Amino acid sequence: MTKDNQQNNEIENQDIVEADRLHGLLANVGFRYEDCLDITPITKEINQLKDEYGRVILAHHYMTPDITFGIADFAEDALGLIEQARRSKSNSIIMCTVLSLAECVKIACPEKTVFCPNKQAGCSVADSITASDVRALKKKYPNAPAVAYITTTAEVKAESDYIVTSANVNEVINALPDQQILFYPDYSMSTSLNAEFANKDIIGWDGTCVVHDNYTAEQVVQFKKQHPDTHVLFHSEVSPELYPHGELHGGTKAMLNYVDDHPEVDSFFMVTECGLSDRLRATHPDKKFIGTCSLCPFMKMISLENTLECLKNTDKKYEVTFSSDILNRASVAYQRTEKLLA
Ligand code: SF4
Fold it and tell me: Most buried residue among 162, 217, 246, 294 by CB atoms closer than 10 A?
């Protein structure tokens, strides 16, 4: 056998090992073996380069399964991603998320270099409010603490007193001694918080999530009639009007925990972004995840291809940066939130 033939055989063998690995992880979410072979060259290159450069890839649950299972070091909800970034020994973090989540990791870990494979990946909730809107709100309600949801721009976070995710928003609202609180920009979440905290006056905003705003009570009622044994779990960005028709409403982490905590239930309808059901199909092959899901067009702007480009190029096109004034003020709000919950 010539040296060239031997090298080609080695590459083919490595490709088969990688395709086998991918198929073992992705078969339950509809990837055929041929699909895994197709993405093998790119997942192999990404995994080799990230190790060589000492970088960590963090992916939100709403990414596609080829990212969460194929290349991510960790796939988590927003709060989990921040915790992983902090814990990581690497100072170079690639965030497979929309820009606002990548920015929040930079705010929580200002000493690290953070990259986003597509900085055009926005968010309908984040786009609904500006820093000047927050200044106007604070002027109108000068004594109310200003609580920003994680899907806001860095400028909005810099104007805020606290920064929360769906995993800790209830804890933060509960810990604040104030009766009147500003919470923005997700309208469904502020409505739900007002219902849950009867002793508080939560002043909200009218931001809506294009994913979670897609669902209607009629759809869910119809679904429940056809699948009475399926447990329906709503993300807290879904309108609270729908909550009485399901078993749980909460953040992504709470939805995942519910599945783990209910081994007696065979099927679930995860009323949220499709990525979460895909993840659960892969990790819980004994359960059924049914019902329609909704794709986030912004999260899906991150791909294997632009993640590879981001890995290869450490230039400003991918690095998450903002002025030191914005970074300092937003970091103070983040630290204040942590202190409140400590
Ligand atoms: S799912 Fe909704 S809140 Fe999350 S990034 Fe997409 S549009 Fe924004």
Answer: 162
Ligand 1 pocket, CB under 6 A: 98, 123-125, 151, 209-211, 273, 296, 298-299
Whole-number Å distance, alpha carbon 87 to ligand 1 midpoint, is: 25
Q: Closest ligand 1 atom, CA of 296?
A: 6
Radius of gyration of the chain, Cα coordinates, nearest whole angstrom: 21
Model confidence over 239-297: pLDDT tens digits? 999 999 999 999 999 999 999 999 999 999 999 999 999 999 999 999 999 988 889 99
Which residue CA neighbors atom 8 of ligand 1 most closely? 123
Burial 275-299 (b: 16+ CB within 10 A, else e): bbbbbbbbebeebbbebebbebebb
Cα 167 to middle of ligand 1, angstroms: 15
Q: Which amino acid is at 141?
A: Y
Is residue 306 within 8 Å of residue 298, measured between CB atoms? no
How far does Cα 198 stand from its chain's mean position? 29
- pTM, full prediction: 0.92
- CATH numbers and ranges of domains, the chain: 3-121+300-312 (3.40.50.10800), 126-208+322-341 (3.40.50.10800), 212-295 (3.40.50.10800)
For the chain, first and last CA: distance in Å? 65
Neighbours of 177 (CB within 10 A): 5
Nearest partner of 60 among 222, 273, 214, judged by Cα: 273
User: Please, what is the angle between helix 78-87 and helix 99-108, to 10°?
Assistant: 40
| DSSP-H helix ranges across 117-251 | 131-140, 154-158, 169-175, 187-196, 217-226
Q: From the CA of 122, how far away is ligand 1's center (Å)? A: 8
Asked whether 147 and 162 are in contact (CB, 8 A), the reply is yes
- Report whether 93 contacts 114 (CB < 8 A): yes
Among 182, 185, 178, 184, which residue's Cα sits nearest to residue 199?
A: 178
